[in-house]
Amino acid sequence: MTTHTTDAELAVDVSGLRKRYGDVIAVDGIDLAIRPGEVFGILGPNGAGKSTTVEILQGNRTRDAGEVTVLGADPAAATRDWRSRVGIVWQDESAPAELTVRETVRHFARYYPKPRDPESVIDLVGLGTKAGSRVKALSGGQRRRLDVALGVIGGPELLLLDEPTTGFDPAARRQFWELIRMLAAEGTTIVLTTHYLEEAEALAQRLAVIAAGRVVAEGEPAELRHRFGTEATVEWTEHDGARRSERTATPTRTVAELTGRFDGEIPGLRIGRPTLEDVYLRLTGQLDDVHVPEDQADQPLETTGAESAR
Predict the structure, then answer these.
(1) Looking at CB atoms within 10 Å, which of 6, 121, 130, 237 has the fewest?
(2) What's the pLDDT tens digit per position in 262-295?
(3) pTM
(4) Complete DSSP assignment for the chain
């Protein structure tokens, strides 16, 4: 017997969300069901509707249609108390240029009833040595770290992250990942939009892939790879030195066939399994059409992941 999470137990519950800007449909019937304490990733190309969706969840943008419940309330009619429970990191910088890092974080902490310790947050985002520096003197990556600090200073129950690691160097990005894992371990629900597929796979328990304002696939990263990336790529070097490759759902059989053509080892043999990036690019129409297994050929691309979370 399958049990379902009730609507009241969801941190984010979205049904039929729609938003239009003039003749442009930014969000076209999105459904999401995000559990408390879950790290949920939203992937999609520029213009897919990711940022608009996040803005609606945070209450900064109205919707044209659909039902939205975040932490038990409609963001469109949210109170100040509700807003104190939601943190957000936008793509655009929000810190005043003339204040120091320490002054900025302490100032924002005053907006919340139960903020985190400002000094601890500054250290968490890797700005301990820059605490006395003015914001305008920070590098782009350091400013992004400060934006993250301002997003988490209130100790939010829900943290919305819109491309949070843009401008981070690899070391800073890994440090940010550890911060997200720490917050998730504490029970914070996190909604993450990102263009970094490695980041999504490292952090998110479930993913929704959005294209043209619609959810085209949803599930755990491994599940998406399995459903929409079943074909492997077998590469080898022919006798004349030319490289060859073949996409196949049965790589073992392909290798067995190649074995009969070569005396000994197959030169340059390499078998590549589909990555999350391969799946993402195909689902969003940026590579070849998605290969759908025969047992799923009669199913739409929209999965039932949102329904199963309810």
Answers:
(1) 6
(2) 988 899 998 877 778 778 777 877 765 444 443 4
(3) 0.76
(4) ------GGG-SEEEEEEEEEETTEEEEEEEEEEE-TT-EEEEE--TTSSHHHHHHHHHTSS--SEEEEEETTB-GGG--HHHHTTEEEE-SS--S-TTSBHHHHHHHHHTTSSSPPPHHHHHHHTT-GGGTTSBGGGS-HHHHHHHHHHHHHTT--SEEEEESTTTT--HHHHHHHHHHHHHHHHTT-EEEEE-S-HHHHHHH-SEEEEEETTEEEEEE-HHHHHHHH---EEEEEE-TTS-EEEEEES-HHHHHHHHHTTSSSSPTT-EEEPPPHHHHHHHHTTSSSPPP--GGGTTS-SS-SHHHHH-
